[in-house]
Amino acid sequence: MILVLVLAVGLFVACDKNNKPDNPTPQPSKKVDGTKYCLDSIEGGGSTEGGSANAKLDLTLTDDEDHTGDVDWAKYDSVLGEFYKYYTAAKAQTDIDAKYAAMAVAEAKLLQTGTYIPTTSRGGNFAIGKVVPYTAPNTLWGNDADRFHNVLVTDRVITSADRDAVKALYKEYKGTGLYQEKAKAYLTSKGYSFKDTYNKAYTTEPISWDMQGTYQSIDTQAILNLVDNLIEYDGEGRLMSALATTYSVSEDGLTYTFKIRENVMWVDNNGRARYEVTAQNWVDGLKRALDKDAVADGLITGVIKGATAYYEGTDTDFSHVGVKAVDKYTLQYTLEEPSTFFVSRLSYNPYAPFCKEYADSVGDSYGTSPDYILSCGPYIVSNYTAKNKIVFTENPYYWAKESTNIKTLTWLSYEDNDDPTATYTDLYAGIIDGAGLNNTSLALARKEHKDDIYVSGTDATAFGFFVNVDRTAYKNYTGEELASPKSDAQKAVAKAAFANQNFRMALARSIDKTAYNALVVGKDAASYSLNNLYTTGTFVSLGKDVTIDINGTSTKFAKGTYYGAIVQAQLNADMGEYAMKVWDKTADGGIGSSSGFDGWFNVAAAKHYFELALAELKAQGVEVSASNPIYVDYPFYEYAYYISRSQALKKAIEEVFEGKVVVNLVPSSKSQGWQTAGYTAKTGDECNYDIYDLSGWGPDYKDPSSFLDTMLPINGAMIKLLGIY
User: Fold this and answer.
1) Phi, psi dihedrals of residue 324, rounded to the nearest 5°
2) What is the pLDDT averaged over residues 445-459?
3) d(Cα 608, Cα 502) in Å, to the nearest integer?
4) Percent of the chain having pLDDT more than 90?
5) Distance, CA of 94 to chain centre
């Protein structure tokens, strides 16, 4: 699971992906030859079969689903109960297109709770760089986009005109395997040369180097450059062979068999070969992921046969779990049920290999630093200095060494750097190879290098405000940092308010996201990355006509309808004139989009829900007025534009509610304190805020459940950010 961190624009190398996700036509399942590439023929928007489907939602929960297990159901139901009921019914659908439609309905129910307020996706900011577009892996899910061994990096900054020309080549050659060759030829003709080094800025130190023991992007972004998985996506979005050379799928869709590449070695950071990579490494990796309880739920449980029982402890015999080494170089997974998107899961953490022999030899030290892991990917770590740099150098035993474009990958730390122009100036000094632009550096770039500026593409990552509905921590769990200024009486009023759905919705509709985003990325780029859903509206589409009940009306959605359009239909039915606009059917040349506009900010709607909330709170004995307002704690990092953004957020909210809501700006002098308030908190009772905008989610596989599972009780990866569990 990808728990992502909102990074400071200008302190990272901007991505340059597709502006819109592709929705390729799926092909029939078949055995594929992975010696050159392994094209996943199973993924796609929905089925290719004709006809239609009915999504019949049984909202009566079974005994296994309804209020069982170690869950405070009263608390959960008071916040997300409607969502759970609809989402459970959606997951019960046997037809994939009916399931997508039902999940869209469930997401509409989630958004109405006011617990998650979408803000932006990743990317969509002004940037300058030397990395050739679409040469990093291009996929909306998993971690592959942060694999850098095959990127093309030029010797000088690519102009926006040349970048546009290369993007045109991408449209022409995408899927042919020829794009990188064509892009390189064009840029060579324009006088560019290519480097075998890539210097990348980073802002947050990895905490863990244990692939199966973490789900945080700050960790996996580093580790996955050291460890190859079975497959990986390339810059054209093709599924490529990595450590699997071929795979096949049984006729019933339950058994996936992979042939493992022979003579691949596990290598230490001194460049010494230690063990051979075998099929058993994936068996051991899956077991470790289940035992570590970091990335199991949703990726393994409910997917791999027997994994749920083992994970929950009702069956302690791991041999009953559906993974086995048939022989030294043959790996087999058995699923609980057919999954059209199983292969898209395989680029993520729990499906990575793990060298148990080495881990046993170092004991508890395993994964604590790059000195205590092994590599089977393109790089080893030759130099690691905390908050300074990480140097990845070529793995001398790498199986694809000859075809690797980048021989040395260097990460340079800009954590807690207080100069908003640092990466911009370092880019032109030749220190790093790309930089996002904030307001300050954008002004300089327009004066000095205006022809080099471009707008980075967006992806499916969903950032937003998370609302703490049951706050118990009023300082960071690690100490006194970010202590709330509220009195006990003010805490009580705020707690009652945030438990109220109408107040949460009022707050959600009061935030001017365009103005909020402009203070980081600049006014001209403010709308590009705006996002209105948790699951990107174009993430999946219907492969056939689907009929589903929308508030008592049988509603037909035609083949090709995007997920976001169905969410919008349900919101309209539930909320009438006060419905959020989450889907613009006219956007992107008529394709439609949930991004690029702010469909939530609405002063009239905010005041409507606020009046409802005030009446309900009054009935509970909680009087709210300008003299007794609701105090909202908002932690932020005391850095350049984050300061001005927090001040603007405070001003906007307070103006909408005419003094009856007051935003307490709670500053952290270090980014680490800001992270500790929620991002690195392990449980809901450690989350120290009322609203929080540092965390986001990137999908692990091509199915809306990759997002929606995160809001399930106990094991939902983002549920802690609501202050529960």
Assistant:
1) -155, 150
2) 92
3) 9
4) 70
5) 26
Burial of 551 (0-12, 13-18, 19+ CB in 10 A): exposed
Structure tokens at 497: 């308010």
Burial profile 390-426: b = 16 or more Cβ within 10 angstroms, e = fewer: bbbbbbebbbbeeebbbbebbbbbbbebeebbbbbeb
What does the mean pLDDT of the chain come to?
88
Residue with tokens 């060759």: 181
Identity of residue 635? P
Amino acid at the residue 699: P
The residue ranges of DSSP E strands in 415-567, in sequence order, are 434-436, 454-455, 462-467, 545-550, 553-557
CATH of domain 2-25+131-455: 3.40.190.10
CB 14 within 8 A of CB 688: no
What is the average pLDDT across 296-302?
76
Write down the pLDDT at residue 271.
Answer: 95
Which residue is it, tokens 């979408």?
118
Domain with CATH 3.40.190.10 in the chain: 2-25+131-455
Sign of the dihedral through C-alpha 614, 617, 623, 629: negative
Residue 377 structure tokens = 């990917």
Interstrand relation of 545-550 and 553-557 (parallel, antiparallel or unpaired)? antiparallel
Cα(599)–Cα(313) distance, rounded to whole angstroms? Answer: 45
pLDDT at residue 339 in the model = 85
Report the 3 state secondary structure along 341-371: CHHHHCCCHHHCCCCHHHHHHHHHHCCCCHH
DSSP-assigned letter for residue 47: -
pTM: 0.78
The pLDDT, as a whole number, for residue 61 is 61
| H or E element in which residue 691 lies | strand 691-692
- H helix and E strand count, the chain: 19, 28
Residue 72, both tokens: 């405070």
Is there a contact between 266 and 374 (Cβ–Cβ < 8 Å)?
yes
Distance, in Å, from the CA atom of 581 to the CA atom of 206, rounded to the nearest integer, reads: 37
638 C-beta neighbours (distance < 10 Å), count: 16
pLDDT tens-digit readout, 236-260: 988 888 999 999 999 999 999 999 9
pLDDT tens digits, one per residue of 48-104: 445 788 877 777 765 555 555 567 888 898 899 789 999 999 999 989 999 999 999
* Contact between residue 404 and residue 421 where contact means Cβ atoms under 8 Å apart: no
Is a pLDDT exceeding 50 seen at residue 693?
Answer: yes
